[in-house]
Amino acid sequence: MSSLPVLPLFLLLLALHAPRAQGRPLTTCRELLSEIENILKKPPVPSEEPLSLNEQFILKNNSFLKINLDTFLNATNNFTDGDKIRTNLEVFKTVLPTSTSKENLFSIKNWGDFRTKLREYLGTLKKWVCNKSLLFR
Description:
Its main location: secreted. It holds the Pfam family IL3. Residues 1-23 form the signal peptide. InterPro entries: 4_helix_cytokine-like_core, IL-3. The protein is an all-alpha fold. It has one domain (28-133): Up-down Bundle (Growth Hormone, Chain: A), CATH 1.20.1250.10. Helix content is 53%, strand content 0%. Helix 2 (29-40) runs antiparallel to helix 5 and helix 3 (53-60) runs parallel beside helix 6 (111-130). It is globular.
């Protein structure tokens, strides 16, 4: 009989059979958002209009996290670096609660508008998801 305790041996066997991350290494919530922010900072930087009070409310409200995410995911199809942004944003679909609303609460006119609104939304994700979620730690 081996002198090795059973629990460490069991944990080792369990670790060997654990599913591995597929496609991309495990990253934190903040790392995902930082990658998106770096894409948004790439030149050329278009002129940006300030957000209306209504848009600020919608983008900062944690009740609209999921429906806003869907709006941004759909908008990524229209932009050059959209695939990279979409890949990072899709990770959040699994941790956000389902929205009661099915309609888009705001529209995205162009790249500058997308950047402004997405940056505001990323701040909300940091506050409500990254700071509170155990799934990304």
